[in-house]
């Protein structure tokens, strides 16, 4: 290589290195996606029951070198029949994500034209949500609800003591249905039930949950979940639980 050509190559390399140090930050590009199997459609929903759809919010999947934080995040769902629940922070750094759920519990028969909306410094991103609230399932199917107390807070229980709460599950659908009870998992938690494999229409059964802490502090197990084919793809009928060892 001649001395002149070498000088040109060196100058080019220096320019490239200088350029690498001046990469500008790109604006955040929030990605809002459905992660549950039904997507954004609650489908046929029996009045008085509740279904859940799950979503993911992520700050940018654009492959950009540097992305600004997603800030001032506000999450809402409309109309009022839709209830969002999430643990998303108000700020997501590049590549960070969080998960959120939207519950649909209709009070009357109607078509749902809803929206999940996320507002931030990047503007607004949204997903349209749909479904149909009905008073009778067609084709006929089982649909379960909790009746009576749904208080999942066991309060403070002394170490090596125990507290039991009983939850009543009822089939308010118009057909018999195969029933699955998934007990909470967590240290100090156990459950039992008298539920049959198939719960007939109009029938009820009982699920007993016991909290027996061996250490002090707050304990949050996985939820108690009861499912029939009607709601299995929507997270089942889930009851969050919590207790504190004293």
UniProtKB/TrEMBL annotation:
Record flagged with keyword Signal: yes
Main location: other
GO cellular component: cytoplasm
Keyword Signal among UniProt keywords: yes
Signal peptide: 1-18
Pfam families assigned: HYDIN_VesB_CFA65-like_Ig
Keywords: Cell projection, Cilium, Cytoplasm, Signal
Localization of this protein: Cell projection, Cilium; Cytoplasm
The HYDIN/VesB/CFA65-like Ig-like domain, residue ranges: 152-217
Entries under NCBIfam families matching the protein: choice_anch_D
Name by which UniProt lists this protein: Choice-of-anchor D domain-containing protein
